Queue: 2 jobs
Job 1
Amino acid sequence: MSGLLSVRNLSLTFATDEGPVTAIDDVSVELAPGEVLGLVGESGSGKSVLAKSLMRLNAGNARYGAESRMILQADGQEIDILALKGAKQLRQVRGDKISMIFQEPMASFAPAITIGKQMVEQLMLHRGLTGAEAKMLSVEMLDRVGISEAAKRFDQYAFELSGGMRQRAMIAMALSTKPKLLIADEPTTALDVTIQAQVIDLMKEIVGEFGMGIIFITHDLGVIAQTADRVAVMYLGRIVEEGPVRDVIRRPAHPYTQGLINALPKLGDLDAPLTPVPGDIPSPLERPAGCVFHSRCPLAEPRCRVEVPLTRAMRPGHRAACHLNEGVKA
Amino acid sequence: MSDAAIRIRDLEVHYPLGRRFLGKAEVLKAVAGITLDIPHGSFFGLVGESGSGKTTLGRATLAAAPISTGSVSVTDGQGDVFDLAHLDRDAARRFRRRAQLIFQDPYAALSPRMTVRDIIAEPLEVMKLCKNRDEVNERVRAIAAKCRLNVEHLRRFPHAFSGGQRQRISIARALVTNPDYIVADESVAALDVSIQADILNLLKQLQRDLGLTFLFISHDLSVVAHSCDHVAVMYLGRIVETAPPRKLFAAPRHPYTRALISAIPSLDPDDRGRAERLEGEIPSPTNPPSGCAFRTRCPMARPLCAEETPRLRQMADGHRAACHYAEELAAPGARAPQVQGVPG
């Protein structure tokens, strides 16, 4: 296997007072080094839970299915993520080989510790550098992500930086440990469009330079179109469609993907009506039987209510789970 | 201009910073001189980055921000005129019924301890607009139905509703007093795209059905372009360009507008790398650049831009822009000079 990450049949339920809640249902996905995988879906689709399970960051009531496998290939090692035990082993996927960039940079920096101190701390922990080496590398990374006067910023607190600067600092921090896999969870959602464009450019440069794999989570298909190589569309804990980004956006094979595209404002045609995906995403406590999307699907047929659709290959590398694709040959 | 619902003239909104410089009290000019008419029954879009002053301008038109100089007058559907700089108590009370605000975050805007019915009914009860409880209930049910809320669910609490449904509750609450003027401040920004389209369509429909005047504030130019019949672009407390969305998109006459349009992530993966990038961030409004406030990020800036503040000039019918060199952007297909340091 030449891949970086292989997730097979991942299922995850949370044990709650109201009974088990299915957050991820039989998800399989692969990622190669240097590849950007976009993960798109509405709030509640399970994309953040999936990302967190790669670092085993989900709450204590998370129960992984018996078939679930997550393997990370890094530095000639094969890490079975679900078999990791104890803080020391878990550290391999929590900062060593996998780093994460969060949506709210204000909430992910400690407010009372300088940016520099936080960067140095993780470098000493994960890479065994001395304090002086760690500081040098941190300032270098801050400079690399386009933060002016990096040495001065190093001694500042998160609240002294603007939103865009904080997100750049977050990226610098996540990259400084040289992870093999970077998870970016809605890294641009809280930013203005002009700053979002800058951050997207920066992330693209970084993939080119560092060659790590990236999982880019967002609810904005436009952002995916501009960053990802492949895209996986999630709905209620399932991947309903996955494929090369051009192919999925130009020839979506699942009604949900089509719905997400129709709901986006089109700049080329201001007269085109905005078509929402009808209804709301159901509560995970009331998961629909059969195809999880049938309750909102404009094309639903009677069997969609009872039969879970198989995931079929539509074209090379492009698969979708919809009954209506039956008979399509890859 | 008799058809303007909102008339803004040379408006400035200052906030004291609580410190002095050379013996003078320092102020932040959140709105730094705006003249604007919002026509009756229009869906008027206001766009700009965080810190551009769009929320303050919206609030000033609701008598919810201090008017330091200039004037704002609001004419309601019945022809009553409210001069917001000089509202007495009685006029202020009448004005509150005519103008309402819809907030950004439907999770923070609704009290978790009140039922949906009570949330929607609160403005009616506070303003004592109904004679009895039955009348309140009737109006709540009517407006809830108009906002496509299930009237059977009015006794539930907000936590039982999704983001889109909560935003519909916020809208119902804003509309229950029968206002004619609504400010919607980033009302779809916190929602998923799939739901965003639904709320936009609902707002448009309500605006048409009820003959409302809407000021729709957003940082997202693509949303504004799709819904509004007129757009104003703000930067550091000033309007830099205003036009119908079609004209604005086809031929932007201000480099900031052009950069905003270019920053919208395109759904076409083959558009990668073609965008024109703005460098840096919006400067602090406590210390704005001299002359044209945009010059520090502008790819076309020249010496004149630092000396003279450009006025908002007429470019075409209904299209105005505040740039000394707007004409250079006019020619169709005109390409910008390369933005410094960014590969084109």
Job 2
Amino acid sequence: MSLILASINYWVTIILMIGGLYIVVAHGNMVKKLVGLGIFQTSVYLLFLSPGKILGGTAPIISEKFEVYSNPLPHVLILTAIVVGVATIALGMALVVRINEAYGTIEDDEVHEMEQE
Amino acid sequence: MSFMQEHLPALQVVLPLVAASLCALFRVGYLSWLITLSSSILSFLVAVFLLLRVLEQGIISYEIGGWSPPFGIEYRVDLINAFVLLIVSCVSAVIVPYTQKSISARFGSTEQSWFYCMYLLVLTGLLGVTITGDAFNIFVFLEISSLASYALIAMGRDRRGLTAAYQYLIMGTIGATFIVIGIGLLWAMTGTLNLYDLASRLPEIKSSRPVLAALAFLTVGVSLKLALFPLHLWLPNAYAYGPSVASAFLAGTATKVSIYLLLRFFFTIFGGATFFTETPLPEILKILALIAMFAASIVAIFQSNIKRMLAYSSVAQIGFIILGISYATETSLTGAMTHMFNHAIMKAGLFLLLGAIMFRLGSVKIEELSGIGRKMPLTMAGFVILGLSLIGAPGTAGFISKWYLGLGALEQGEWWILVLIVSASLLTMIYIGRVVEVAYFREPTDEVVQLKEAPLEMLWPAYLLIAAAIYFGFDTSFSADLARQAAVLLVNAVY
């Protein structure tokens, strides 16, 4: 139990990662797939942020009052990753809209059937 | 001039990036094409200058914004990525003159501009991935190029382009996320993102579990991007239903850049061939590569859409390249890198010629091409030459790279691999032969009789690539010798 609690953020990361990936694979609805993809990407943010946080550490602004600082680098990286993630989901949604216009459905298997014809 | 020289590495990426935003601002088709053309040619010249400088004075390190590495982002050009930069920018510079005719026939002025904007963003991303020395920067550039290429593929003629782009988006994003996970684990273990700083810190902890997990994540992520069997499922549809120009460009460059990443991670960062051969990777990659060479070639034989056939052929050719990587010797890596170069030329050329057929006939279904060799003789003659090169006939570029791949296998005493390489090449002969048989030995149909030869603007870029495919079959002093020098750097993890 203590093993789990000591690294709780990594366990959450793993659960989100596997859950998100499972949704992408298991669901036929194209929007739900994108939701899963979003969850999968979000889990990575946690993976980066966890090692950057130091217990008792403060924001990295140099001051005489503080000696322990958190690492600012992962926040910068994840800000970038969030932007990339947003762009990906937006483009994915735009494609789903176009697919809906072209096929009249956003279910994977129905689209696949129409393509076979 | 010296100011320009100093900033060449940054210019390599900034030029197409600025050009892309200009295209988005002006939104006049012809003007956008001119912008794309000039920035593509300039990028190519920059790549040539960079390569010459690297040959002359060794590694170039460029500090973005004046922040010194490993804290700032470093652009670092050595022989390995100078070679890849040259491949990418050269393929792009040859394709752009061809685009105008093919794109203006289908899109209005504004849409054309968006097309060129996306095209340039793909180019920016690919050049950025190749030139950067920062692991997180790799991810960002990779996503720039991937997002733009999803949009490019969605602009295809057919509505299936949309689903192909969607599928590519899902698989590509999973791949990119795997790469970030790998980079994150490496960063957590070493505290650095600079590739070369990583390389110096990793040897001490290289057998720790997070580092091995990082290697696994990176391998799977990059393999998704480069379409290694069985992670290739996005590729056939994306190449078959995207616009011809996009297929030619992506087939020639995107997968090659991913292969470069694989080489960089395996060899430069993790400590050369000695580390690579300690892991189970060589066996796994060898088996997957062999399956790709055969399974994808056999599937290619049964395709009726020729673009789809060539897409499967790409999966098979990537198998050849990965086979070379799996041996991790100087000769086999020379083969892999030469094949990267040659395959970029051949596949881009083949897709350009198919684009010309699509332009005239409106279809690339094999049964509708009967007798087309009589009506479009130059196009089909080019197709045959590039096809021969793809098979690996002596006197063409494809022969050189397969020769080195075979030598690499022989050096390890595995002569049966040589037999497999030759038989996979015979499968290539079957699917290229099918097209040749239909195009030359059947009576032209009514539609084909009315065809004219492809327009000159579309033919000469393709013929440049054809000339290159023949030239590099005889003179290997550029392609194979450079590849060998790069292979030496990789095997010994020199950085």
